[in-house]
Design brief:
The chain has about 150 residues and is mainly alpha-helical. The protein is about 85% helix and about 0% strand. The chain contains seven helices and no strands. Helix 1 packs antiparallel against helix 3, helix 4 packs across helix 5 and helix 4 runs antiparallel to helix 6. Its main location: membrane. Belongs to the G-protein coupled receptor 1 family.
């Protein structure tokens, strides 16, 4: 089970790292404000490749049992759920950005700015982090019981 996961992790990490590096090195790519969404997606997917897939593999190989303790479990769940939702929200932002740029070009060009793009990206990271942080780390407090 663990051996087929290695190429998937490697491809995920290398592919997304290449996107980030290209954005940093190629001026023509980084000049387009909408490419910031692509970089945000690459960052979230890179982190999933680094921590999400390998730790899920540990869980599955261990017979659907978590061998690394409660804190590591909560942290893995927080990161995995948060990053997956960030990925989904970023794809939604990319889709909306492309739609608006094609179907409402004049209004879109007047509306779009680096600041507005950064705010949308920031919100796409903060919303999932707060939501899953409260649910995962605050579960024992909210439920009145113990975690796990």
């Amino acid at each position: 089970m663990a051996i087929p996961v290695f190429p998937i992790c490697t491809e995920t990490i290398i592919g997304n790292a290449m996107v980030i590096i290209a954005y940093k090195l190629q001026r023509s790519i980084s000049k387009q404000v909408s490419n910031r969404y692509i970089v945000s997606l690459a960052i979230s997917d890179l982190i999933i490749g680094i921590e999400g897939i390998p730790l899920f593999t540990v869980y599955v190989v261990n017979g659907d049992r978590w061998p690394l303790g409660a804190i590591a479990c909560e942290t893995w769940l927080f990161l995995d759920y948060t990053l997956c939702l960030v990925s989904i929200l970023t794809v939604l932002l990319i889709t909306a950005d492309r739609y608006l740029s094609v179907c409402h070009t004049a209004k879109y060009l007047k509306w779009q700015s680096p600041t507005k793009t950064q705010v949308l990206i920031f919100l796409s990271w903060i919303f999932p982090a707060v939501m899953f942080g409260l649910m995962i780390y605050g579960w024992s407090f909210l439920s009145g019981g113990t975690g796990g």
